[in-house]
Structure formats: structure tokens, C-alpha cells
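Progress note, sequence design subtask.
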């Protein structure tokens, strides 16, 4: 069974681009795990033609803030500690946990 020509054209335009090993805006050398690419859930052609960018170029182009691994870890840790805070009815433990949470939140 032959593929219909109009279907072949559509799939050819939605195929992902090959990563060149560089940021396509500033030409900085990148590993594939450090490259960011815009994805559009409703339009595959936009996703397929989106450039591979480094973190700073991606944040600048799309006006978003990508949290670092440290920020993600701090957010998860503070979330867990806040869950523990609800479990302690005593004032001493709650005070200690709230101090630890403030310390973590204020550290870089």
C-alpha cells in the first residue's frame, strides 16, 4: 500500500530537527541534556521547527524563568518540611521546624 502524498508532506514537516551540539542563538557548545527546545502541544510543526537553545537564550527569548536544580531541590525540601510542620502540635518542634525552613529559604 502506497503512502498518500499529502500525508508524506505533513509528516515530513513535523519531524524533529537534529541537534547540532550548539545553542542556535549564541553558538555556545552544549550537551543535549543542557539544551532547551520550545514545545507546542497543539501544533507539531512549531515544535519541530523550534531551535535548540541554552538556558539563558531560552529564558530571554520566551520570557520564562527556568528553575535551577538547587531551586527545585529547595522547593521540594520546604514542601516536605511544611508537611511535617502540620504533624507537630507542640510549640517547640513547630518553632524549630519553622526556623530551619527560614534558614533553608534564605540560603543560596
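Output:
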Amino acid at each position: 500500500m502506497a503512502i498518500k502524498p499529502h500525508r508524506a508532506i505533513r509528516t515530513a514537516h513535523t519531524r524533529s530537527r537534529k541537534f547540532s551540539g550548539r545553542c542556535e542563538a549564541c553558538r555556545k557548545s552544549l550537551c543535549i541534556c543542557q539544551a532547551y527546545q520550545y514545545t507546542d502541544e497543539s501544533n507539531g510543526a512549531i515544535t519541530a521547527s523550534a531551535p535548540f537553545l541554552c538556558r539563558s537564550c531560552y529564558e530571554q527569548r520566551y520570557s520564562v524563568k527556568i528553575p535551577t536544580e538547587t531551586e527545585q531541590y529547595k522547593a521540594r525540601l520546604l514542601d516536605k518540611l511544611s508537611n511535617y510542620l502540620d504533624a507537630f502540635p507542640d510549640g517547640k518542634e513547630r518553632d524549630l521546624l519553622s526556623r530551619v525552613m527560614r534558614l533553608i529559604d534564605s540560603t543560596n
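The first helix runs from residue 5 to 13. Work on this subtask will continue into the next period as scheduled.
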